[in-house]
Write a structure and sequence with these properties.
Helices cover 12% and strands 32% of the residues. The protein is mainly β and 253 residues long. The strands form two sheets. Strands 7-8-9-10-6-5-4-13-12 form a nine-stranded antiparallel sheet, with helices on both faces. Strands 1-11-3-2 form a four-stranded mixed sheet. A hairpin with a 2-residue loop joins strand 7 and strand 8. The termini are far apart.
Length: 253
């Protein structure tokens, strides 16, 4: 099965990737101690994404609740919404013919979960008729996958996608890069820098591992949004259809 599925495809590009979330119902909540206890970092990280407690810079970022995303000239930021629940499930950044879908999840206090999730994604891709190579990347191990798709002629083809992961203190961030950036290192640089600049606002509430951290739509009054020089398009209707063009933010700086 696929992993972390919340909502539908990104309608702006044919390179969208559908993933689904699986939660082990036997898992215990990640914080078996009081939420006010200090977070532990049982692993070393030399690059972002970063925890909110680790960042002290003036880089303009768009506030999406659980994650803060750097504003990049020319980007479009689309919020993916679960049609059944109207819950914001992911942020997708479109830039120069490529896209990066980002989601943040709760994780255990004592260990990262990317190794386990990466193996599950690889197994899911191969079971569906694709392939996945586990390779070193700028954020550690990552997957370069070839996802099976149906062509307009009715044939079976494959679409490349890069799965990035970053373990942090009690959180995990997953990115899915599609388009030119999935296969062209030069085209991937801008999205890699954006992924590295993400800040996670985990909060102190106890959550089971792999629980999706809460995202929200940015508003015109958000200071970080205004400083990034963006314009906001409001959701078009309550019955949001993920297969149609949805609320997005277009960088105009």
């Amino acid at each position: 099965m696929a992993l972390f599925r919340r909502g539908g495809k990104d309608p702006a590009t044919d390179d969208a990737v559908e993933t689904e979330e699986t939660v082990d119902e036997t898992s215990t909540v990640d914080d078996e101690v009081a939420p006010s206890a200090p977070a532990e970092v049982p692993f070393e990280r030399t690059s972002g994404p970063w925890d909110a407690s680790e960042v002290d810079d003036d880089l303009p970022r768009v506030d999406l609740g659980a994650i803060l995303i750097p504003g990049v000239p020319g980007m479009e930021l689309r919020m993916e919404i679960d049609k059944a629940t109207d819950v914001v499930s992911a942020a997708s950044i479109l830039l120069d013919g490529s896209s990066l879908q980002v989601q943040a999840f709760a994780a255990p206090r004592t260990e990262g979960i990317w190794d386990e999730i990466r193996a599950e994604i690889a197994e899911s891709v191969t079971q569906q008729g694709g392939s996945a190579d586990d390779l070193p990347g700028p954020f550690g191990r990552e997957l370069l996958a070839r996802l099976p798709v149906r062509t307009p002629e009715g044939r079976t083809g494959h679409r490349p996608a890069r799965f990035l992961g970053a373990d942090g203190p009690r959180w995990f961030v997953r990115g899915v890069m599609t388009g030119r950036a999935a296969v062209d290192p030069a085209a991937a640089v801008a999205l890699e820098q954006l992924f590295a600049g993400i800040v996670v606002v985990r909060g102190t509430d106890a959550r089971p591992p792999r629980d999706l951290l809460t995202l929200r739509l940015p508003g015109p009054g958000t200071p970080n949004l205004e400083s990034a020089g963006t314009q906001v398009e409001e959701p078009v209707a309550p019955d949001f259809d993920p297969l149609t063009r949805g609320p997005e933010i277009t960088e105009i700086r």
